[in-house]
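Before surveying the methods themselves, let us examine one representative protein, pairing a chain with its fold in token form.
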Amino acid sequence: MEDQIATTQPLPVLVRRNRLALAKSGLWLAVGFIGANGFVAGLIELVSGGAKPLLAFGLLLGGGLLAAGAWWRAQAVIAVADRTPAAGVGASVHKRAGAAARM
């Protein structure tokens, strides 16, 4: 027989938390996309030679840092949302495993 996963929080709380995490992650991904566009614009300006090199390097550096930071933050928000309910699940599964081993 399969073990059922039990959580310590009611389902509406988990759904609300996951929706909020997805919304936050989506906003960070949008910011990362803006940063990636800045990086590409800086790369194009650097290669074409149309702008001052300092401006092109600024766009490259700023866009790259913004994209990497925002994408890392989006992943971190999802990881925290995934990890939060798992703490309750792990505790309940370990309690059942310990109780079954004692029988």
In short: Residues 86-94 have pLDDT under 50 and may be disordered. Residues 53-102 form the longest helix (50 residues). Residues 12-97 form one domain. The CA atoms of residues 14 and 85 lie 7 Å apart.
